[in-house]
Amino acid sequence: MGTVSNLLLTGARVMIAPTGEALPDETSVAYGASWGGSWVDVGFTQSPLRVSYSESQVGISPQQALGNVKKFRVGETARASTTLGEVNGTNLVLLMPGAASDVAAGSGQKGWTEYSVGGSLTVTEKAIGFEGFRMDAAGNQQPVRVFFWKVVLTLTGDIVFGRNEQMTLGMAIEALEDQGKTVGQRLMKVHIITAPAT
Fold it and tell me: Which of 8, 44, 75, 150 lies at a CB distance of 3.0 to 4.6 Å from 56, suitable for a disulfide?
């Protein structure tokens, strides 16, 4: 028989940090709370967050057999995607290789953000985390978190200026293997909190 509490329906928030940032503690950091450190919430998203993992395998088929007798994993990829609803300098910098600066409003000066892009060879790597929730037996929201140790973020699709369409930033996320982690843990980690501390 299945476990009803394992049936989940949740949105997700997206958190960004420099690579190597410590993960939020599973016991002390509640759902919806600040993750501390350098983790920053990218703000509202306008489409569901989608996370995928895929692998490729090669089979060994000796002359003495009709089919494969063994398989080896020879490649793996972890990806995610969503659409950022907040168009600002911070999110533009995440998705395109540029720099943003903010100027505060003052006497005779409008507040504004300037963003420039183009000509950079460097690809920036970040850590990323996603947080949804799971209801525990007492009806409290407990966090469900997915972490990618190292990712490259890119803009997908168009930035649309339209009378009947919200301007958004499509975000593609591709995980890179973190060679500093133990084999079997180099792409991602998932925390599913099932019950409060006693």
Answer: 75
**Quick check: 18 and 127 in contact, CB under 8 A?**
yes
Per 3-state DSSP, the chain is made up of helix, strand and coil in percentages (nearest 5) of 5, 45, 50
DSSP 124: P
10-residue block means of pLDDT along the chain (198 residues)? 86 95 95 96 95 96 96 96 94 90 92 90 94 92 96 95 94 96 94 91
| Residue 4 per-residue DSSP state | G
- Matching residue, tokens 């395109």: 96
Query: Model pTM?
Result: 0.88
**SS3 at position 90:** helix
Gap between the Cα atoms of 133 and 196, Å rounded = 13
